[in-house]
Amino acid sequence: MFPIPLPWLIVGVLVSLFGTYQVGHHYGWLERDGDMKIAIAKKNDEARQIEQNMTEKLSQQSAKLQEANDAINKKTTALAVANRAGKLRLCPPSNLQTPTNTSSASADSKATSESNRQANEPSDAERATIDAIAEIVAMGDRNTAALNACIDSYEQVRSLFNAKANE
Predict the structure, then answer these.
(1) Residues ≥6 apart with Cβ < 8 Å to 134
(2) Eight-class DSSP state of 158
């Protein structure tokens, strides 16, 4: 009957089926790539929006921290001015011990250098101590303000990411 054309027909059908499969596979990958590009672009836009939001919040926290540091610097400057003016004392003048022997006090070199001071005026050592205490307090205030700003920033970032995860 038709022994010769039948194998060629079967081979032709197989080649056409294989070719159709390859073309469909190729166009399917192209469609998938297009969908992935759209999804990636969407995720990039969301990431840019989150980054912009986070940058804005960080700049607000930085501004708050700068305001706190400025207030601390003003307070430190006011303490330094008050200390230089002699308004700050470590202990009240009524608690100061007066020397019992005035002849030994006059022999002391520091006592002779401070003889022109008023009785209620603080000594240089007391002023230096007050300056050191004021600097320690200012450093503690700055560190506390920086830590609080860091904690606030962390909480904002955490709440933003938790809100994103819950969506």
Answers:
(1) 76, 79, 80, 83
(2) H
Q: Could you give the CA distance from residue 65 to residue 142 in angstroms, rounded to a whole number? A: 9
Distances (CA, A) of 79 to 131, 142, 144: 8, 15, 19
The single-letter DSSP state of residue 121 is S
SS3 content of the chain, % helix, strand, coil (to 5): 80, 0, 20
Please identify which residue in the block is written with the tokens 């672009």: 41
The chain-wide mean pLDDT, for the chain, equals: 81
Tens-place pLDDT, residues 79-136: 888 888 878 777 755 555 555 555 444 444 444 444 555 556 677 888 888 888 989 9
The single residue listed with the structure tokens 């207030």 is: 71
Contact 79, 134 (CB under 8 A): yes
Backbone angles phi, psi at 47, to 5 degrees: -65, -40
Looking at residue 111, the DSSP 8-state letter turns out to be H
Contact 69, 149 (CB under 8 A): no
Q: Say yes or no to pLDDT of 159 above 60.
A: yes
CB atoms < 10 A from the CB of 65, how many?
18
**SS3 letters for 81-104?**
HHHHCCCCCCCCHHHCCCCCCHHH
